[in-house]
Design a protein that fits this description.
The protein has one domain: Helix Hairpins (Orthogonal Bundle). The chain is 80% helix and 0% strand. It has 4 helices and no strands. The longest helix has 37 residues.
């Protein structure tokens, strides 16, 4: 008997969750800006705790923060796909890069505007 090639039915295939975890690790390893985005959430959460935000404010803060992080993840995933796919033209590559950066910039602006709307009234009450 030849035991060098195990039966296909016995081989373990990674689940969807394992594949997603691997992909997220790859994205975070490739993009240092994404780690910066993640680190920027720490002062936001700390300010929310210090200012005693209510449930609606927390929902808004968490939503825009996750939107900002997901935009960064998608941008990095698109850049990784560009490196993998050799059939894309230079024009398509420049468009994909520009759109990814624009989406991150728009979500960053939306997050900043939302943080100002949520935090400024609380800070002005303290002063």
């Amino acid at each position: 008997m030849d035991f060098t090639h195990p039966d296909i039915a016995v081989q373990a295939n990674p689940t969807g969750l394992q594949k997603t975890g691997y992909a997220l690790r790859k994205v975070f390893n490739r993009d240092p800006g994404l780690l910066l985005q993640l680190l920027l959430t720490i002062p936001v959460v700390a300010a929310g705790i210090a200012l005693h935000m209510n449930a609606v404010q927390w929902i808004v803060i968490v939503f825009v923060t996750l939107l900002f992080l997901v935009a960064g993840i998608f941008r990095t995933a698109a850049l990784l796909q560009i490196n993998h796919d050799r059939s894309l033209t230079r024009f398509q590559i420049s468009r994909i890069k520009s759109m990814g950066n624009a989406i991150v910039a728009v979500t960053a602006g939306l997050s900043l505007l939302t943080y100002m709307v949520v935090f400024v009234p609380k800070i002005s009450q303290l002063i």
